[in-house]
Every structure is written in structure tokens, then in C-alpha cells.
Amino acid sequence: MITSADEYPFHQTPDPIAFAGTDRNFYDRFFFNGYNRDGSVFFAIAFGLYPQLGIMDGAVSVLKDGKQHNVRVSRRMDGDRADLAVGPLQITIGKPLISSRIVLGDNDGGVSLDLTFTARHAPVEEPRFTRRIGTRGFMDYSRLTQNVSWSGTITCEGETIAVSDHEFRGTRDRSWGIRPVGTPDSQPPAKGNLAQFFWLWTPCNFDDAVAFSHTNDDEFGRPWNRRGGVTLLGEEAHEFEDVSYDYSWEKGTRRIAGLTARLEGEGGNATLTFTPERYFYMSGLGYMHPEWGHGRDQGDERFGYDVYQISDCSPANPLYLHVQVLSQVRLDVAGQTHHGMGVMEQLFVGPHAPSGMGEGLSVNE
Fold first, then answer.
1. 118 near 151, Cβ under 8 Å?
2. Considering Cα of 179, then 183, then 186, then 190, what sign does the dihedral take?
3. Is residue 150 within 8 Å of 169, Cβ to Cβ?
4. Residues facing residue 246 across a β-bridge
5. What is the longest distance spanned by two Cα atoms in the chain?
6. Rounded to whole angstroms, what are the CA distances from 98 to 58, 161, 327?
7. Euclidean distance between CA atoms 268 and 256, whole angstroms
8. Taking the CA of residue 209 as centre, how many other CA atoms within 13 Å lie in the half-sphere pointing to its CB?
């Protein structure tokens, strides 16, 4: 099947680009978030392609005034991965790894936007994520992460917000490979796909620096994928060999109340200290959503809109388990202190011995 994507010299197999190996769970995804300096506005955007499933979907969420507005869209893609548009949502790649434009045009929901990101530094290539559950392949993917500034406009409930690159910053990532997508496996591993999963991702923005760390831990607290780095803008990025975390927890929940990330290496040390402020719920973008899960077949084209009242989002509800927490962040590095903002993305399922968490969604009271 020849499509418009074949015009670009990006082939890596003898097949046309429409064909992506043989694994039905292959995906290719864009993710973006952004926030203003006082944290009163937070937005996030997800856009995914699932070539084996023949689906393209996306979502836009805006968190403002105690409400999270969620627009979700899906369509059948007919093999063409070059047309990055689903209903009113469209991505236009400008300069690769430097800038792109995202537009959510007029629609039947309460949100629209026209935004362009500009990269603040070279992308970080995270270590490849490869994980098995017993003998079953669970995930195998690559991702780049990049902190950005934003410009454009957001319209929410009739109010238009001017977005300037001085006021709004955030993070974007690109990931591709294998992870569970589409309809759940009819024969999952005996213990399930998510019997244990500990995921923490913490990109941060400062006026003259950016920082990043993440970890995937097993049930004993041992990292199977972990990395941390700091870039003072205008200088080379510095990656640290050892990354460790000190946690405090909200009582009766799986939510972090406070976090310190310690980055150590031969070239020096750095410390990131997080103070959480606002919760953003990733199900608004389709993550772990029972109806709008990524890659689900919603028909030829479908649009959805709903609103989460943040005060109603109980941490005991699995729909609100996967979060990004907008946080104030202090960076101490090279004898200097920087103050900025970032997110703590967290998804904690099953046991994690250092944190006292047990099976399922049980909590340490």
C-alpha cells in the first residue's frame, strides 16, 4: 500500500511505510504539555497512530479554574501516516526537533487552541524501554523528551488566553514502538499486564536551565529504566550516572506529597526538590480510559467532550490513578539555585517495597 508518507525518505524496511512490522501493538505517538508561570493554566495534548490497527486518535485537555476540559477524537487512518489530522485536531511539523504547530479548530466542546512550540534544548534520548512479563513481551519502545516554550492562543469556555513564549513553558515527547494499545488482549498474562508498574517522570523548566529524571522500578524498588540530566542553557547537557529518590506520600493514597531527586556523577551533583500544586488526570487524554483508550476503534470518525470537576476526582478511583502533578521545583547544581516548574508524572500499581505499597491499589495507611 503506497501512501503519501512514502514521499519522505524515512523507510527502514523494504516495505512501504504503511506497514509497521508484524506486532499489532505498534504505535507512534506525540505528547505535549504546557503551563504558565503561576500554574493557573495547564494543558496537555496526545496524538497517536496505530498502523496495524488502522487507527489514529488524539486528545486535548485544559486544566483551569478547578475543571479539566477534555476533547477526544478518533478516526480510521487507512494506512496513511502522513496526514496528521483527526477531525478538528491537526499537527503540522515545522522544523523537526525545533518547532511544530498544533491546532484544535472549532468543535462542539468547550476548548480550541492554536499553539506552536519552540524547543529550549536538544532532545534527550531516554534509555530504550524493554520489559517482559514472564515470557510475554509487554513493552519495547524508544522516546525522546524535550522542554519547550509555547506561543499562540487557547480558548476555554469562551475566554481566549494569549500564550507567549515568555509566560508558557512545558515539555513534549515522541515515542514509538510496542506497548499495549487497542482492545485489551483476550488472553493476557496470568497475573495481568499491570500487576506491578512503578513509573515516575519529572521534566522541569527554569529560566536558564532544564532538568529531567525518570524511573521505572520493580516490586523491590530496583530500577529497570532510570535516567537523569541537567542542561544549563547554552552549555552541553550533563547526564548523571546515579539517580535516587526520597519520597513522602499523601496518607491513604498512592500520591506523592513531596519528592527529592538526587543526581550524582563524576562531574558533580544536582538536586531537584518538588512541591506539588495541581493534579492533571491523564485519562482525559485517553490513558487507561475505559472507552477512549488509545487505539480503540471508534468508527470512521468520532468526537467526544467531557469535563472533570477536580474536586470530584478521588485518588481511590482507578480513572484518576495516572496523573501529572504540576509542581514548583528547586534545582541546586554547580553551586547555584534555580527556581522553576515541572511535572511529576506518576503511575503506581502493585507492590513497591521502599514505599510500603502492596498488591493492586492497596495503600500504606
1. yes
2. positive
3. yes
4. 260
5. 57
6. 21, 24, 25
7. 27
8. 22
Specify the amino acid at residue 211. A
Structural domain spans, the chain? 4-9+26-182+193-355
Task: Give per-residue burial for 215-252: e unless 16+ CB within 10 Å, then b.
Answer: bbbbbeeeeebbbbbbbbeeeeebbbeebebeeebeee
Q: What is the pLDDT of residues 268-282, one digit of tens each?
A: 999 999 999 999 999
pLDDT tens column, 69-117: 999 999 999 899 999 999 999 999 999 999 999 999 999 999 999 999 9
pTM for this model (two decimals): 0.96
Distance (Å, whole) CA 77 – CA 72 = 16
- Give the count of alpha carbons within 13 A of 249, CB side only: 16
CATH architecture classification, 4-9+26-182+193-355? Beta Barrel (2.40)
Residues linked to residue 100 through DSSP beta bridges, in sequence order: 93, 117
State what percent of residues in the chain have pLDDT above 90: 88
